Amino acid sequence: xxxxxxxxxxxxxxxxxxxxxxxxLTNFPKHESVTQAKENELHDGLKFGxxxxxxxxxxxxxxxxxxxxxxxxxxxxxxxxxxxxxxxxVSRALVSIVKSEGAVGLYRGIGAMGLGAGPAHAVxxxxxxxxxxKLGGNEKGYHPLAHGTAGALATVASDAVFxxxxxxxxxxxxxxxxxxGLTHCIAxxxxxxxxxxxxxxxxTTVVMNVPFTAVHFASYEAAKKLLMEVSPDKADEEHLxxxxxxxxxxxxxxxxxxxxxxxxxxxLQCQGVSGAQRFMSCSVVDAVRRIVAEEGLSALLRGLRPRxxxxxxxxxxxxSTYEAGKSFLSNCD
Length: 333
Description:
Order of helices and strands: HHHHHHHHHHHHH
Structural class: mainly alpha
Distance between the termini: 58 Å
Shape: globular
Number of helices: 13
Strand content: under 5%
Number of strands: 0
């Protein structure tokens, strides 16, 4: 059917609008690209790499700042005959180390900590954030199961990265350590005991850290929400006081509950060093039975005070640094 003159005139007048409309549509992002972008970001707009960077910095700051207390904990968990401390109080153990070895004695093994803490915490926090998001932990309300499960999964992954350097670190922290330094310890362990020695305590570490992390993360999220409800005007999710208080409370509770397992982990990691007892297997149950049989039930609580003293401020430092890092990276984008 032939077009009339009026039809031609109408089509001519509308065509620029049609072209403009088509051009505007091409400038709009496609639905698929928007969906894909959302999948690459979590609830606060940060990406996986951002969590790794913020977590790595937080882990380094936490462990470097609290390293002297960690040395006290290791010494107090070991027997005096095996390079441990003969003192049962933190103050006396501290004075003894400074008097006999100088301040440098508190920092033996810090190189191993530096090598392990950054990568391990990068894995730790990034896996936690992703799992928490997938499990619905970012939805409104309190979700302790999601937070605890995400924390448990995160520690299984991070412990695989951190355990080798933690073994080296604790061996260097002993008073009568036979190792001259980081590289000498690694080389000697590989030559004498084999690669498996670096992961002897991994099962125990996971058994300890899964409940530790589950309690820690669930407590942290609960304390943070409680503080925000009690004082909503002064406490928001970006407020430093919220992270320091919630992180400190979570660290204290989780560390106290898991101290017996931490004693077992330290004994397994330092076995055979400076005359320390050796265990026939890596079994947590067997190690607990032997420690209790030879030293009594109270031996499983050795180092309780320095452990709590370490994790309370350490958790506060770690969480506040991590949240500050996330906020900084979010503002940079």
